Amino acid sequence: MLDQYQIQLTKLLEREQFEEAKDLLRFLLRCQGDERQHAIEWENLLNWLEESFPTVDDADGLEHEDLEEQFRRAALSDYGSTNSTEAATKLMNTLTSSIPMDQQILALERATYLDVPELDEQLINWLQEATLSSAVQFKALQCLKKRGCSGTVQLTRMDETVHLLIEETPLSMNEFPDSVNAILEKAVLALEQVDVTMPILVTELWLECLQCIYGTRSYGWMLNEEEYIEDCFAAGLHHTMQLIVYGYAVDDDIRETYGITNEYRFRYEQASRVIREVALYLQDSD
């Protein structure tokens, strides 16, 4: 189980998700048990992250505009330029070259802060024409929304052709529909009874799944607010999480936990298959 958290921590650091990394480290320190040596390393890393990447509330009283200006300067300096247009050109050259997924995502984060109107159309064309992973597509949609873009894009996601409105892209879990968040809440409540360390892992898995299936038929299915749909997807998420962590899952026990009767067993199996396929897709993308 510890290895899973170490892998997750590494992923968060690679993606520069420093706030999430700090939350995970705090969680690990609360649940350290006999892992004293690891606890020392976690505490040192947490201290370094808090000093190097303070939260907005702790950032020496800086106003939001001041922080945003710092991010803009950082985005420019990353491309060795003080000229926004030149930096945007270098950024697009980076995105259109053969680079790993994590570097594509980092470039998109930087693109958010480049004040170059022409970059909007370039990013939209790249998003629609390039062969990209579903996760990178979703990050690009978020980048475009943050830049104030709107309109429809046509993408191929999980072997489906979909049409998505940029302005409707969720920027955080809170912006997903209630039915989508209810699925995670049910899975977390059940999984923490199995292992108190599960909630963080299942939350990360669910977010990664959503980034991949957003806009697809499977995503549309879970927008149905009927409780049995939420139960089926929550149980499917639970099933996949146990397969990842333990290598096995007791199907009958899981169905009993979520109250899934024979009437809805087929729906549960469909939901489980969707989530397993996304988990395998994510594994192949790493």
Walk me through the topology:
Layout: H1 2-14, H2 18-30, H3 36-52, H4 64-78, H5 84-95, H6 101-111, H7 118-129, H8 134-146, E1 152-157, E2 160-165, H9 178-194, H10 198-213, H11 217-222, H12 227-246, H13 251-257, H14 265-285
Helix pairs in contact: 1-2, 2-3, 5-6, 5-7, 6-8, 7-8, 8-10, 9-10, 9-12, 10-14, 12-14
- Overall pLDDT score: 83
Annotation field: number of helices: 14
Strand residue percentage: under 5%
What's the number of structural domains?
3
Helix-strand pattern: HHHHHHHHEEHHHHHH
Note the main sheet.
2 strands, antiparallel
- Coarse morphology: globular
**Low-confidence stretches at least 5 residues in length (pLDDT < 50)?**
59-65
What structural class do helix, strand and pairing data support? mainly alpha
- Rg, Å, rounded: 20 Å
Helical content, roughly?
Answer: 55-70%
Q: Trace the largest sheet across and list its strands.
A: 1-2
Report the strand count.
Answer: 2
How many angstroms does the end-to-end distance come to? Answer: 20 Å
Describe what this molecule looks like in 3D.
The protein is mainly alpha-helical and 286 residues long. It folds into three domains: 2-52, no CATH class; 71-168, no CATH class; 174-285. 67% of the residues lie in helices and 4% in strands. It has 14 helices and two strands, in the order ααααααααββαααααα. Strands 1-2 form a two-stranded antiparallel ribbon. α8 (134-146) packs across α10 (198-213). The protein is globular and about 60 Å long. It starts with a helix and ends with a helix. The model is unreliable at 59-65 (pLDDT under 50).
